[in-house]
Each structure stands twice: as C-alpha cells, then as structure tokens.
Amino acid sequence: MNRDQSENDRREVFAQHWVAAEPSVSAYVFAVISGFHDAEDLVQQIAQETARRFDQYDPERPFLGWALWITKSRVIDFYRQRSRDQLVFSDDLLKRLGDVIVSREASRNDRREALEHCLDHLPERSRKLLDLRYAQDTSSHKIAEVIGSTTGSIRVTLTRIRDRLADCVQQRMAVEEAR
Amino acid sequence: MTINNQQLDQHLDSGMSPKDAAEFEQWLQDDEHLNQLAARAELHTDLRRSLQRRGIQQEAMDRFHGLTSLASEQHAESSSPQHTGAHENTSINSAASATASSKQWLILTIAIAAMLLFAFLSLPQSDTPKQQTSKSQELIARIAYQQNADWSSGPREVGDAIDGGMVQLQVGIARLDFSNGATVTLQGPAKFEILSADRTRLHQGVLTVHVPGTAIGFQIETPAIDVVDLGTAFGLAVGFDGETDVCVFEGEVEVSAIGKTSNSDGRLLHAGNAVRSKPMAGKLETVLYETNRFEDGWPVTSGVLQATGLMKFVSPGPEFVPGRFEDNEHIVVFAERQGIKLESELLVDLTSPGLYQRIHRHTNEKIAAGTTIRSYLLQLDPLGTRERSSENKPRVTGQITFDKPVIGLIASTARLTNTDELLGHPEGQYKTTRRGIEPTRKEDNLGRKHDAVILSDDRRTLSLDLSAGSAVDQIRVIIQEAEQKQDKE
Fold first, then answer.
1. Which of the residues A71, A108, A112, A151 would you substitute to probe the B interface, choosing the one with the greatest number of B C-beta atoms within 10 Å?
2. Do B196 and B259 fall into the same domain?
3. CB–CB of A162 and B43 under 8 A?
4. Are B38 and A31 an interchain contact pair (Cβ–Cβ within 8 Å)?
5. What is the pTM of this model?
C-alpha cells in the first residue's frame, strides 16, 4: 500500500482544512440534531464524505462553505430517516444557520481556547457534574438517581454551569480584545 | 414568546416537546436568536470534546499517581527500581501539562483523525467504505468467547451484546466480535471502551485485534497513541501509567503519538515492528518486536479457542508462517487465510465428525461453492529429533478447539499442494514433496501404531493422537466462516 507523494500532500491539505472547519461543522450539527451521539455520528459521516469528495472541492472558495453545503444535505437525510415527531429545521433555517456559523468562524478558535481556561477555573463540584454528563455520557436522569436529586434540578444546574462558562468565555474574549 | 437557555439546552441535549418546538421554530426566525443557538451549540460540542479528552488524560495520570504513591509507601525494596525511575519525569510535569496542553490536544486530535480518515478513504479497496456508524440501537459487538472471565459489571455470557461504553475485565480472556468484522481479544485485567462501531479506547491492559477488509479504519485510542488499523492484526498493551506498546503482527497500521505539541510523529507501522510511547510524550520510540504478552490472546483472536497437549499456536508475526518456522516439539498451528469465498466446489479428504485411523484420499468429499471459509495448517515436523525407526516412539497428542465448525480436512499431499495457492498463507513457503498424513509409507504399516484423528460431533474440536515416527506431516483444516447464501452480495 504505497502512496505516492502527491497523495500524501493531498492528505495533508485535507487534514489542514478539516482541522480548521471541524469545530464549526460540529457546532452546526449539534445545533440542528438533538443528542450528542447522533450528532457525533453524523459529523463522522460528514468527515468521510468530505474526504472522499475532496477532489471536487474548489480551492478558490472557502472550505467551510463547501463542508457546510455537504453537511446540510446529510442533515436533511438524517431528518428523513428519523421519526416524524422530532423537530425538523426547515431548509431556509438550515441555510441561514450556515451563514451564522460562517460569520462566527473567525473567532471560533479563540472561544475554544477561552473555554479551556474557564473550565480550569470551574469549582470542583461543577466540573464533576460536567464530567458525568459529557465525558461519561451519564444522562441527567441517571445523575439525579445517583446523587439523590431530581432530573429537573440536575438540568437546571447544568444550564447554570453552562451559562457561567458562556459568561466567562465572553469576558475573556473582551479582555483579549481590549489588549 | 421567548426561549431561554434552559430550553435551548433541552433542545441540544435530548430534544424539545412538540409544543415547545413550534415556538422554538418561530423564535429562530430572528437572526440574533439563531446566533444564540449557534453559540450554545458550540458550547455543547466543545464541552463534549474537551471533557472527554481531559477524562482519558486524567485517568492515566491518576493511575500513575496511584502507582507512585503506592511505590513510595512500600519503599524501594519491594518496588521495581526500573519502573519508578523510568517515570520520574512524567510525574513532575504531568499535573501542569495536563491542563496547559489541552487546547493543543483538541487541535491535534482532530488533525490526526483527519489524516487517518483520509488515509484509509484513499486506499483502493475501500472505495465503498462500509462504515457502520452506530445508529444508536444497532448492535456493535458480541462476546464471542470467554475463558475464566470475571467482568467488573457482573457475569456476562457468550453471545451477550456489548452496546458501547466501558467494558472491564478483571481476569481471564474474552473475545468481542464487532459487527463490522473486527475481532478484539482482551486479556484481563483490561479496561476497554467502545465509543462507536469503529472507534474504541484501551485505557489499560492487553488486547490483540484482527481487522478484516470490511472494517478498515477501525481505531483504537490509548492514553499515549492512536492506532488506526488498515486491514491487519496487531497487539496493544497499555500499562498503569498509560504507556502504550503497539506490535504489528500482519499488514500495517497507522500510529500517532499524542503529545504536548502538534508534532504527532504519526507513521505507518508494518508487520514485525513495534513502537512505544508515554502519554504526552508526543513521540514514538521503536522497540524490539516482542510478542510474549500477546500469546494468550492471539490464538483466540485468530479463531483458535484452545490448544492443548502438544498442540501449539504459533506466535504472532511475519516470521511465523508455514515453511519458515519449524518446531520439532509441537504440532504447530498456523493461521492461513480468512474470508475466502469459494468460487467452485473444493475437494477435501474428510468432512464428517468421527474417529479416523486412516485418511483416504480417494474419498471425494466436497465443500460447496459459495461457502466462505478460513484455513489453518497443522504441522508436525517429521524431520525432528525422534527416530522414525525407534521402538519406543513417543505418542504425540494434542487437541485444538476452533470458534467455528470444521467442515473439511485435507491431509493428502496432492490436495495440500493443490490448495496452497488458494488457502495457504501468502508469505508461506510450502514444499511440494510428500507432506500429508498418507498411510502409504511402508514404515507406517510396519509400525502398526494406531494413529487417530478425531473430529468432535459439534465439529469444533479436533484431536490428534499420532505416533511421532509416523508419516504425519501436515493437515489443512477448513473452517466455515459463513454459510453459502444465494446472492450474498
């Protein structure tokens, strides 16, 4: 399985593009599909498709726009396969969301870095709760069961922690900007 | 009408009630609101990725700290000096670097994933990547075999489904067969996590894995290295401190050390090579190809559940193939080909369970076309140290149990030779001279030893009882991987 130099180059170019675009693609998919397992599976499929179709990508145009175009069709496919009673974003809404995501791209990485910093300064208990939810895939319902609380109260607490992180990120961005 | 963050989180987390959904859609008509949704979705995806990555790092660190504090309590006399010495540097830096480097981690992880993704998509045979991205409820893996297995979560049975999440084996051996064809054998104590149908994580312990063409791209992460299988077999060992060894038995894998900087030092590793890395080291160290640790799990991965008596499964690696490896002491078992779909019927010497003292080549038994098979070669070195003419010929006995039914045995020289091309190991060197269990040599008849080949009623176990001086040389065992189906494709 020898790959020649041009193949390696192509691979590297794709990797660079995907690394830059992935957080935005991921945010898009998370926004329109509930539950991170389905969302993550879909992002993986999109990664495969963009890699497979990479030779169709026009390097004159922004990669994210192209990737989001593929993303949008995969999301629509996903909606079709799924049960009816769940929320479906209209075609127009999906398109407008794409524009919003593109407009947020420039500062996307700064916000991610800020979040890392904010996470480091989170109180131990909040961090633990987030870990349970995000790293260990524990549902709010299950967390409530384990720590002897109610699902509603866990949800509220998680939202407050997220609010706090969002504020922290915003403040940090403002400070960085002021410099 | 307004949607608060609580409701946004509800939507992102698990979905809204239909009543709220209608309001939500209305609310999103405002671009500013759409922007709020995008910001919240960013937060969810970033938290997910960051906390997952921090989790696996932290875990390795914790284990390591547990180990060092234990070692310092015990003093130097009982703890291995080599072990503690080797990890001093990591210990000092670990806590600080765990947080400082996490943002590079994020970028790096995606970069590696992207490179690997592209790598396997570009392979010619994978133009129809049958990526079984787990549709939530789809079966990911099953326990195919276990031996003395003690699971942390309580008893599990062969055939039990494993849907994903953490799997912890305290002791024993267990084989998990993935729906995409990958086979993973864990040796306890091991902590293994299934993230999706083709993405897994070995937190600690030893495993061997075989990945057929259908599962190319199967990925195993450890605290120190990401391994992507490119259609092959390899062993992976993760120590208490996250130090990882990768040992490639067949084919090639793509390995990338996970480090502090973005120099991931990813590379292609071929059969017969091994590398090692520590968490955050960011570089791979080439080490001696050494398979001892994998020799309990490897036969199980290869479809041989048990081999007793003088029966011995070869070590994993490119050197251990028929004709290149000889062992006078044992009946050596070589794995040859897997997943061969017969295009025409195959003539063999024996197909039914029972006890056989002679295998006659003129019985034209057949395996039907369309059957998908796997083959093994059992070999007793006839030129060994034992004297053929000696009065006290030792008996050579052994038993081997396969994971799937034996549907044919080939023991005549002509048929062995005829099937070498189809069923032999691609790297093997096969002789063309006499080599089967043919009772045609005069000395066998003179010896009147009662050689016996027994195929059990369930077709899983083959027993050999042979006099060492007999003409026995090689038997090819044909295993049924899948029944023949009409229009399988």
1. A112
2. yes
3. yes
4. yes
5. 0.54
Do B340 and B419 touch, CB atoms closer than 8 A? no
- Looking at the fold, whether B165 and B47 belong to one and the same domain comes out as no
Look up the CATH number of the domain holding residue A172: 1.10.10.10
Strands B219-221 and B199-210 come out as parallel
Both B366 and B477 in one domain: the answer is yes
| Chain A from 55 to 84: CB within 8 A of any B CB | none
B334 and B275 part of one domain = no
> Of A106, A140, A170, which one is at a domain's C-terminal end?
A106
* Torsions phi, psi for B261 (to 5 deg): -100, 175
Q: What is the CATH number of the domain that holds B223?
A: 2.60.120.1440
How many residues belong to chain B?
Answer: 489
How many Å apart are CA B89 and CA A107, to the nearest integer?
A: 36
Range of the domain at B81: 7-100
Domain boundary among B81, B100, B119: B100
Would B107 be classed as within a structural domain?
Answer: no
Kindly give, in sequence order, each residue whose CB lies less than 8 Å from that of residue A81, ignoring residues fewer than 6 positions away: none
Q: Where are the beta strands (DSSP E) in B230-384?
A: 233-238, 244-250, 252-257, 267-270, 274-277, 285-287, 304-309, 311-313, 331-335, 340-341, 346-348, 354-356, 365-367, 372-380
What residues are paired with B244 via a beta bridge? B238, B277
ipTM: 0.94
The whole domain housing A80 covers 5-106
Residue B108 included in any domain: no
- Of A130, A159, A142, the closest CA to residue B7 belongs to A159
Residues B75 and B192 both lie in one domain: no
pLDDT, one tens digit per residue, over A14-63 is 878 888 899 999 999 999 999 888 898 899 889 888 888 888 899 999 99
Q: Are residues A99 and A170 in the same domain?
A: no
**Percent of chain A that is helix, strand, coil (3-state, to 5):** 80, 0, 20
pLDDT single digits (tens) B306-365: 888 888 888 888 878 887 777 777 888 888 888 888 999 998 888 888 887 766 555 778
Q: Identify the pLDDT of residue B129.
A: 37
Q: Does A165 contact B196 at a Cβ distance shorter than 8 Å?
A: no
Q: What is the pLDDT of residue B59?
A: 73
Strand partners, B146: B174
pLDDT higher than threshold 80 for residue B204? yes
Over residues A157-166, the mean pLDDT reads: 94
Residues contacting residue B44 through CB under 8 Å, at least 6 positions apart: A30, A36, A162, B9, B12, B13
Say if A112 falls within a structural domain. no
Tell me whether B230 touches chain A (CB under 8 Å).
yes
